[in-house]
Amino acid sequence: MVRIRAINNKNLWRWCVVMVMVTRSVADGIGVNWGTMMAQPLNPGTVVQMLKDNGIKKVKLFDADSWDVNALAGTGIEVIVAIPNNELGRFSKDYDNAKDWVKENVTSHKGGVDIRYVAVGNEPFLKTYNGSFIQTTFPALENIQKALDEAGVGNKIKATIPCNADVYESPSSKPSEGNFRKDLRPLMVDIVKFLHANKSPFLVNIYPFLSLYQDANFPINYAFFDEGSNPINDGNLAYTNVFDANYDTLVWSLKKAGVPDLKIAVGEIGWPTSGGLNGNVESAKRFYDGFFKKMASGKGTPLRKDAYDDVYLFSLMDENLKSVAPGNFERHWGIFQYDGRPKFAMDFTGKGSNKMPVGAKGVQYLEPQWCVYDKDNRNMSLVTENVNFACSMADCTPLGYGSSCNHLDINGNISYAFNIYFQMQAQDMEACDFQGLAKITKVNASEKGCLFPIQVASTGHRMKLLLSSPIGAAVAIMLLFLLL
Ligand SMILES: *[C@@H]1O[C@H](CO)[C@@H](O)[C@H](O)[C@H]1NC(C)=O
Ligand SMILES: *[C@@H]1O[C@H](CO)[C@@H](O)[C@H](O)[C@H]1NC(C)=O
Ligand SMILES: *[C@@H]1O[C@H](CO)[C@@H](O)[C@H](O)[C@H]1NC(C)=O
Ligand SMILES: *[C@@H]1O[C@H](CO)[C@@H](O)[C@H](O)[C@H]1NC(C)=O
Ligand SMILES: *[C@@H]1O[C@H](CO)[C@@H](O)[C@H](O)[C@H]1NC(C)=O
C-alpha cells in the first residue's frame, strides 16, 4: 500500500485534505477475514454492504465461492481468495488444475472484482497438522503463481501462503534470537525466496490471545498494546507488547533467510469475546482499541515502520460451525455476532471515539419460536443422548465455563441445546422432537443474560455442504460430560 505523505502543502485547505488522506490511509490498511463456517450465513450482499458501511476496504476469504466473490464486484474492495488445505494436492500434482482454478476463480471475474492475492492453503504448516501438507503446499504455490503469470495477471495478483506464527520461534523472548522452525527451515527458506522473487508478501497470523491462553504465567499486559507491561529488551530495542515482538521475530527470520526486505502482511489478528479466561468483550475491546491506536500512530514495530499497514482482523462474524478443538473461544472471534449485530464500540481510525460499528441491514429472521425441554416429560434417561446429539451438531459453547449461559440450571441447559439445534436446522419441526422430550414455544426462552437466538433466514445454498462436514465429535463428548 502506498502511504500518502504530507509534504509542501502550504495552504490550510490542502493541508486538511492531506490530513484526511493520512487518516484514511490508516483505515485503508484494515481488512477483515470473512469466514462462512456458520449454519445460516448472511446473504453476501448484506455482508458486503456492512463492509462498505464501516469503510472496510479489504477482505480475506477462505475459499473462492463465486457467490461471495461476485458480491464484491464493483465495490473497490480488495479481495484475497483462497485455496483450502485439502485441495493443495490437486494443484501440486497437476499444473492444469492450477490453470483451471485461476481461470474459473480469478480471471473470469476480471475487471469486476479487485482480487489482489491468492492464499494458497490456510496455516498448512501448523504443528497440529503433523506435516500433512508439507509436500504439497510449495509446489501448489509455484503452480498457482505460474498460472497467474501465464494468464497475464501475475503483476497485480500474487500467490502467497497464510502461515501461523508457529512457523518461526525464538528460544528466548528476544526477537533477534528467532528463526524459522527447525523442521521447516529449508522449506521456509525456499518459500520466502520464491515470494521475494515474485514480489509477494509473507502473510502471517499472530495471536496474542493464544499466547496468553496457552501459558498461565504469561504477563497479561504484554498481550495488549497499552504499554502497561515492563519492556523486554533486545539489544537496544524495547518491546512492550507480544505482537511487536512476535512480528519482529519474523523480521529476524527473514533476515537470516536472506530476504530482509520481504513485505509482510498480517493475515489474521483479533481477540474472541467468549470462551472463558480472557475471551470476553472487555478484553477484546481493550485489545482492538490499543491495536487501532498503534496502527494510527504509524510507528510500526521497533524493526518495521510499516508493520501495521496491511492487516486483516479476525474476524468479521462469529462462526458457529468452527471446530472447538482449540477451545470454546473458536466460535466467538467475530467483531459482529452471527446476525451482523455489532458487539462493542470500536474505532477503525484509531482516534478512540466510542462508536458502535454499523451492523448488518435488512437481516431477516426466522419466526420467533423456540424449541425447549418439555418438563412434563420426566423420563430423564433419554436426555443425555439427545443433548449430546444436539451439541454435536450445533453450537453449545455459550453453556461453557465463563460464557454467557453458564449459569443456567439443568432444565435451561437442556433447552439451550435443543433450541440451538432446532434453529440451526432452520426450525424444521422434526428437529424439535428429541424422542418426545422437546416442545415448541412462542414464549421467548432467553434467560437473564443468556440469549436463546432465533436464526437468520438464509438463502441456505451452503446447507448441504455444511451438513456433510465433520463437526468435532470429540467436542460433543466433552460437552456431554460437562453438561450432565
Ligand atoms: C473455484 O473455487 C471454488 C470455490 O472455492 C471451487 O469449488 C472450485 O473447484 C474452483 N474451480 C476450479 C476449476 O478449481
Ligand atoms: C497428529 O499426531 C498426534 C500425535 O501422534 C495425534 O494425536 C493427532 O491426531 C494427529 N493429528 C492429525 C491431524 O493427524
Ligand atoms: C428474547 O429475549 C432476549 C432477552 O431479553 C432479547 O434480547 C431477544 O431479542 C428476544 N428475542 C426475540 C425474538 O424477541
Ligand atoms: C424411559 O425411556 C426408556 C428408553 O426409551 C424406556 O426404556 C423406559 O421404559 C422409559 N421409562 C419410563 C418411566 O417411561
Ligand atoms: C449446565 O451446563 C454447564 C456447562 O456444561 C455446567 O457448568 C452446569 O453445571 C450445568 N448446570 C447444571 C445444573 O447441570
Automatic annotation (TrEMBL):
One of its GO terms (molecular function) is glucan endo-1,3-beta-D-glucosidase activity. It is found in: Cell membrane. SMART domains: X8 (SM00768). It is a lipid-anchor; GPI-anchor. GO terms for cellular component: plasma membrane; side of membrane. Keywords: Cell membrane, Disulfide bond, Glycoprotein, Glycosidase, GPI-anchor, Hydrolase, Lipoprotein, Membrane, Plant defense, Signal, Transmembrane, Transmembrane helix. Residues 1-27 form the signal peptide. GO terms for biological process: carbohydrate metabolic process; defense response. Its EC number is 3.2.1.39. It catalyses: Hydrolysis of (1->3)-beta-D-glucosidic linkages in (1->3)-beta-D-glucans. The keyword Signal applies. Residues 369-452 form the X8 domain. SUPFAM superfamilies: (Trans)glycosidases. The chain crosses the membrane at residues 465-483. Belongs to the glycosyl hydrolase 17 family. This is glucan endo-1,3-beta-D-glucosidase.
